[in-house]
Amino acid sequence: MRKLKITEMNRLSKEEFKEAEKLPLVVVLDNVRSLYNVGSVFRTCDAFRIEKLCLCGITAQPPHIEIHKTALGAEDSVEWYYYKDTIECVQDLKKEGYCVLSIEQCEGSTMLNDFRADSSSRYAVVMGNEVKGVQQEVVNQSDGCIEIPQFGTKHSMNVSVTTGMIIWEFAKHIKLDISNR
Fold first, then answer.
1. How far apart are the C-alpha atoms of 166 and 39, rounded to whole Å?
2. What pLDDT sits at residue 176?
3. Is 134:127 a contact under the CB 8 Å cutoff?
4. Of the given ranges (5-14, 36-45, 63-72, 85-94), which has the lowest mean pLDDT?
């Protein structure tokens, strides 16, 4: 086996990315503190061509060197918006027809391995603060909660890792035609 060179990977240009079909998924960051986590989420959103990223509350916005260190330019390709209040973001997404799901450990949450996305629906997933998770008020406004099963002594994971897992699961269920890049 030989590693591929960057020139062999057929990557999209920023212009091609902006025109390309997107995964009908919006990622919402609810008061994420770490700029490195924000940058990592940008990069994952670029990799899976998500529709847009909403940065809410204290979540930092580009341009910022710490975001760029992990985003590696994805902050320039991924469409993003800032909301001072996550509730306002959730309400706007619901008005636009998105099914809003908080990624949180809640009574009655659906385990990620049991969740099946409907390819005819549009989804938004809310990712929470590194310490406090998704705000209860945001959970209350959500259409449901998805929980990632965990089997160790900890009951939480890094928000950027969790976001990657969630986006991957949605990408598996919602087929994105990437054949005609």
1. 17
2. 58
3. yes
4. 5-14
Question: Within 13 Å of residue 152, how many CA atoms lie on the same side as its CB?
Answer: 5
Mapped onto helix, strand or coil, the DSSP state of residue 21 is coil
- Say whether the peptide bond before residue 24 is cis (omega within 30 degrees of 0): no
Please say whether the beta carbons of 112 and 149 come within 8 A: yes
Q: CA torsion sign, 116 to 118 to 119 to 123?
A: negative
- The predicted-structure confidence for 116-139, as pLDDT tens digits, reads as follows 998 889 999 999 999 999 999 999
> Is pLDDT above 60 for 180?
no
Interatomic CA distance for residues 71 and 96, integer angstroms: 28
Six token digits for residue 58: 């204290």
pLDDT tens digits, 13-30: 999 999 999 999 999 999
Contact by Cβ (8 Å): 166, 125: yes
d(CA 123, CA 84): 21
Residue type, 97: G
* Phi and psi at residue 125, to the nearest 5°: -115, 135
- Give the chain's largest Cα–Cα span: 51
The CA distance from 137 to 90, in Å, is: 11
